[in-house]
């Protein structure tokens, strides 16, 4: 089970400072959609250059021109690139094909997918490396989470790794660990805390110990 730090509401220098604080406790750094929208792939490049030993995920939430987008993110240094589960099958195939060519991986984000089990099964067959259940900021604000979705796709996905994102905190981590995802993505649950290093260390400890609710 890996821990991914999602960096969303910061600029490049702030992102570098944040990763420095917690780097020994995380496996993957996510360059979030808001940073990429403002800073572009320079953010991916800067983090990969500063932390060559960490995997870097570019959260570009691709919807079209998938092969082209994956090629650009890969060139910037991304190890994992995101595409939306709602994209056309042709786009998913294009992303998977280009990622394979570049030696990279694709994470499919299930944000806003309605029939999550059916789509997860299809995406698994299309060769996604990760399938990620995700409650975005706007639904988190309505008190939603993805814990039930995680359990629901676990039973149909045979090949892809399973990930979960959206509002996960130290207090809710044991419930997430109980469902045994391959990857746990945490943004504000670390970046919004005073002592980020301590929280990241505690999360890593719970994950390594497999502590469940
Ligand atoms: O993908 C994300 C969101 O859509 C904004 O781009 C976040 O990285 C993801 O939700 C994880 O962040 P937290 O919800 O703050 O844990």
Provide the CATH superfamily: Aldolase class I
- CATH class membership: Alpha Beta
User: Structurally, how many domains make up the residues?
Assistant: 1
Kindly identify the CATH topology: TIM Barrel
The whole-angstrom Rg is: 16 Å
Q: Give the class from helix and strand content and strand pairing.
A: alpha/beta
- Report the bound ligands by name, code or SMILES: the ligand O=C([C@H](O)CO)[C@H](O)[C@H](O)COP(=O)(O)O
Number of helices: 11
**On the 0-100 scale, what is the average pLDDT?**
97
Task: State the end-to-end distance.
Answer: 16 Å
Describe the main β-sheet briefly.
8 strands, parallel, barrel
Quaternary organization: single chain
Description:
- This protein has 213 residues and is α/β, with parallel strands linked by helices.
- It has one domain (2-209): TIM Barrel (Alpha-Beta Barrel), CATH 3.20.20.70.
- Helix content is 46%, strand content 20%.
- It is built from eleven helices and eight strands.
- It has helices spanning 12-22, 33-39, 42-50, 66-76, 89-102, 116-125, 137-140, 147-154, 173-178, 188-191, 196-209, and strands at 2-7, 28-31, 55-62, 80-84, 105-109, 130-134, 161-165, 183-186.
- An eight-stranded parallel β-barrel has the order 1-2-3-4-5-6-7-8, surrounded by eight helices.
- Helix 4 (66-76) packs parallel to helix 5 (89-102).
- The longest helix has 14 residues, at 89-102.
- It is globular and about 45 Å long.
- The model has no long low-confidence stretch (mean pLDDT 97).
- Residues 6, 8, 30, 32-34, 59, 136-137, 165-168, 185-189 line the site of the ligand O=C([C@H](O)CO)[C@H](O)[C@H](O)COP(=O)(O)O.
């Amino acid at each position: 089970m890996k821990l991914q730090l999602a960096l969303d509401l910061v600029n490049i220098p702030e992102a570098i400072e944040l990763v420095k604080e917690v780097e020994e406790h995380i496996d993957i750094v996510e360059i979030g959609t808001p940073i990429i929208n403002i800073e572009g792939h320079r953010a991916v490049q800067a983090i990969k250059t500063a932390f060559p030993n960490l995997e870097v995920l570019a959260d570009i939430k691709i919807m079209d021109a998938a092969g082209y987008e994956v090629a650009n993110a890969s060139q910037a240094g991304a190890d994992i690139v995101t595409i939306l589960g709602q994209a056309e099958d042709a786009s998913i195939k294009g992303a998977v094909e280009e990622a394979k060519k570049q030696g990279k991986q694709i994470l499919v984000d299930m944000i806003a997918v309605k029939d999550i089990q059916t789509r997860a099964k299809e995406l698994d067959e299309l060769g996604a490396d990760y399938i990620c259940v995700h409650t975005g900021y706007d639904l988190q604000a309505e008190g939603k989470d993805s814990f039930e979705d995680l359990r629901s796709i676990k039973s149909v996905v045979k090949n892809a790794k399973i990930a979960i994102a959206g509002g996960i905190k130290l207090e809710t981590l044991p419930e997430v660990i109980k469902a045994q995802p391959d990857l746990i993505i945490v943004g504000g649950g670390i970046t919004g805390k005073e002592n980020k290093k301590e929280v990241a260390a505690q999360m890593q400890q719970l994950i390594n110990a497999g502590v469940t609710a």
